[in-house]
Amino acid sequence: MMVIATVGNHLLAQPIKYQEGSKIYDKAEKQPEFPGGEKEFREYTRRPFDNDFRDYYCDVLLSCVIEKDGTLTKVKVLMPITDRECTEQAIKLLKHSPKWSPGLVAGKPVRVRLTTTIELNYVAGSFTSLRPAPKNLIYTSVEEVPQFIGGMDAFQNYLKNNLNYPPLAMKNGTQGKVIVSFIVERNGKLTQVKVSRGIGDDCDEEALRLIKKTAKNWIPGKQNGIAVRTAYSIPINFILPDKKY
User: 141-161 pLDDT, tens per residue?
Assistant: First the structure.
C-alpha cells in the first residue's frame, strides 16, 4: 500500500499568491497528479522497480519536487531505514516515474514539493513476469528509446527528401530549429504531435507535417523489455538552400 501525503485536486481554503521564477511551493491551488490519479500510482508502486529474487518489506518516506513540466527532481529520503536495498527500490520508483500533471497556482504551472510514503510488501517469486506498465502511463525516460525505422540516418534522409522550405521563411531569411514533441504509442504510432519550440514563418507547420507523415514508422520505447508509451522530442532544422543542410 502507498499513501501520498499531499496529492489531490482539492482547492485550498486560503488563496495562494503566484510568484514568477523558481519558487518551490509546499502546496498549490491544484496539486500535482500522477497520470490516472492515485489508483494508478498505487499500481505503479505496488512492486519494486527491479524484478529480483528477494523479499521487500519496508516503508520509505520520500520527498520530491514536481517541476513545471511534470518531471520529478530532488528525490530524497526523509526518514532513513536500515534496509538500503529497499530504500533504493523506492527511490528508483520515484525517479523513473512518468510525467505528472504539474501543480497550478492562478492557473499557471508551478514547482511543488511533495511527500510520499511508499510501502513495499513484496515476496520474491510472487510476480512471474516483468513489471507491466499501466496502459495510460507516458514515460519520459526509458531503457530503450523510441526509434525511427531504419535509425537516425534514415530519418535524416527522409527530411532531405521531403522538407519543403516555406516560401515565407525563404523570403524573410528565416532559419533555425523547430522542436516537435509527440507520444510514441506502444504500437509505434504517433499521437499528440505538437510544436514545443518554433521559429514561425510557416516552418512550424512544415515541421508538424513532416513528423505526422512518419506516424507509422516508429519503433516504440521499451521499459524492462515491454513496449510503453513514451514522450519524445526531435529537432527539425531549417537552413536556407544556399547553406549546408
Answer: 888 899 999 999 999 999 999
